[in-house]
Amino acid sequence: xxxxxxxxxxxxxxxxxxxxxxxxxxxxxxxxxxxxxxxxxxxxxxxxxxxxxxxxxxxxxxxxxxxxxxxxxxxxxxxxxxxxxxxxxx
Length: 90
Fold this sequence. Notes:
Helix content: 55-70%
Largest sheet: 2 strands, antiparallel
Strand order of the largest sheet: 1-2
Structural class: mainly alpha
Number of helices: 3
Number of strands: 2
Order of helices and strands: HEEHH
Shape: globular
């Protein structure tokens, strides 16, 4: 059941954040380097849907997310969005 809830929550959030990402330029643009096979720009902020879905699913499932794990997830989300925005080096 928690997996289905997470799936539904993420599926509901993605259409909300994708247009915002496109509007502010957080997109992956096609290129001729052979690594990107899409023909149009794709939004990059899927984590903004996945992390809240994980928290909601854990709450619905009755499992508490350890505060340190929750903080780590939020930190990873911040690093991921920052990397999408400015391209952090490895």
